[in-house]
Amino acid sequence: MAARPPTLLAAVAPVLVGSGLAAHDGAFRWDVFVVTLAAAVLINIGVNFANDVSDAHRGSDTSARIGPTRAVAAGLITPRAMWAGVAVCFGLAAAGGLYLFTVAGWPILAIGAASLAAALGYTGGPAPYGYRGLGEVFVFLFFGLAATVGSRFAHDGAAPLDAWLLAIPVGMLVTAILVANNVRDIDTDRVVGKQTLAVILGRSATRHLYAASMLGGFPLIAGFAVLGWTPGATAIALAALPLAIPPVRTVYRETSGPVLIGALQGTARLHLVVGALLGLGAAL
User: Fold this and answer.
1) Residues paired with 132 in a beta bridge
2) Residue 259 host element (H or E)
3) Phi and psi, residue 132, nearest 5°
4) What is the pTM of this model?
5) How many angstroms separate the Cα of 257 from the Cα of each of 50, 54, 55, 65, 172?
6) Which residue of 57, 83, 96, 156 is 20 to 30 Å from 203, comparing CA positions?
7) How many domains does the chain have?
């Protein structure tokens, strides 16, 4: 429960894109793909564990919160045990990083170390950036840019332009997942003093941000492909555009937490589908 399996899709999409680009360049390695995917998912699980225990410590997971049960706040697991889970996940991810280091060199270690630090700082530490409206920025940087480019880099130590370009729409969609989560929790977060970007902007502006994050990547995917900056077949990801409409419509029309959970799930699904199609298009 604490691992929050539906959210783990966010770790898969950038690995598919980066690996597809590696296949396009003739650099794909199955061992690198498997280790990168495992490390990415483990970091995501560790993030979820750390957020669970940190939010419980700060008292932001109250009984009024709408969404999946938080294990520490609900008394299902002790903080000490949860931190042990964080250590195990990050330790295994670090082991994967050491393997990738033998393939691609020291930048992999730098990306991994920065990712772990960002994971712990989201809701933990003396100044958690997730409580200061910076969550979306860090998610875009680490689950979008770093994850996509890093997944491509891991295969042969190269970070070509097309990886950076496709990392932008991937980052926009993964950011939309967090925006959907925060717009759902806007009222309860405001009460406990959790200053997410949604709380700072207000519901109306956050809805616009969500729509821009959901839809803005599609013109970029088309433009990059037409200009020849990315493999032309990556344009097949445009086929996923209809999947963006129902969640955007829901976020604009609804304020009920349970209904917005469906929009959150639809956002995660879109992110995965776009990542899979971009990866497939690149590999063709």
Assistant:
1) 195
2) helix 257-283
3) -125, 25
4) 0.91
5) 23, 22, 19, 9, 23
6) 57
7) 1
